[in-house]
C-alpha cells in the first residue's frame, strides 16, 4: 500500500481534531471560497470603456487625418530605432516600425487626438472655396465683416506696394530716357 505523507498527515490531524471544531473550520473555509458577490476586475471595465468608439466628436475627417499624420511622425520618433529584437533588422524592420507608428497615430486621432488639428486648422473657415481667417469671431455677420476687413486691409497694403513700385520703376525709366 502506497502512502502519501502530506495527505496522511492531514488525515491524521483531521481525525484527532474535535468533530465540531473541524466542521466549523470546514464551513468557514467553504464560505470564504464562494463569495456572495462575484469578483469584478476594474481593469476589464476600463478596457471596455477605452475600446468603445467615441460618440461623434464633431471633428472633420480632414482634421483627423492631419492629426493622424502628425501623431504618426511623433510616434515614429518615439519608437526605438536601433532595436532589431523588436521590429527585426534592415528594411523590413523599418517597415514594421513605420506601420506601427501609422496605426498608433491613426488610433490616437480617432480617439480624439491631442488637439493639434483644432489648434492649427481651426483658425479659418471656407467661404466659396476661399480661406477666410476667423480673426477672433466664430460665426455670423461679425465673422463675415471681420473677413471682409481682412481682405480690404490686404488689398490696401498691396495697392500701396504697387504704387511704391511704380514710383521706383518710374523714376528709373525717366533717368534712362535722359
From TrEMBL:
This is Flagellar protein FlgJ N-terminal domain-containing protein. Pfam families: Rod-binding (PF10135). It comes from the Bacteria. Residues 77-120 form the Flagellar protein FlgJ N-terminal domain.
Amino acid at each position: 500500500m502506497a502512502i502519501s505523507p502530506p495527505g496522511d498527515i492531514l488525515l491524521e490531524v483531521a481525525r484527532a481534531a474535535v468533530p465540531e471544531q473541524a466542521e466549523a473550520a470546514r464551513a468557514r473555509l467553504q464560505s470564504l471560497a464562494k463569495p456572495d458577490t462575484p469578483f469584478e476586475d476594474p481593469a476589464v471595465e476600463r478596457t471596455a470603456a477605452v475600446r468603445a468608439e467615441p460618440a461623434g466628436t464633431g471633428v472633420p475627417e480632414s482634421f483627423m487625418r492631419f492629426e493622424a499624420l502628425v501623431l504618426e511622425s511623433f510616434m515614429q520618433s518615439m519608437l526605438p530605432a536601433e532595436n532589431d529584437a523588436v521590429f527585426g533588422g534592415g528594411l523590413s524592420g523599418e517597415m514594421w516600425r513605420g506601420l506601427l507608428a501609422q496605426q498608433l497615430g491613426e488610433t490616437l486621432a480617432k480617439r480624439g487626438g491631442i488637439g493639434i488639428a483644432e489648434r492649427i486648422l481651426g483658425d479659418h473657415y471656407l467661404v466659396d472655396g476661399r480661406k477666410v481667417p476667423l480673426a477672433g469671431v466664430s460665426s455670423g455677420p461679425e465673422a463675415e465683416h471681420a473677413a471682409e476687413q481682412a481682405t480690404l486691409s490686404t488689398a490696401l497694403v498691396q495697392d500701396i506696394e504697387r504704387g511704391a513700385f511704380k514710383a521706383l520703376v518710374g523714376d528709373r525709366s525717366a533717368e534712362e530716357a535722359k
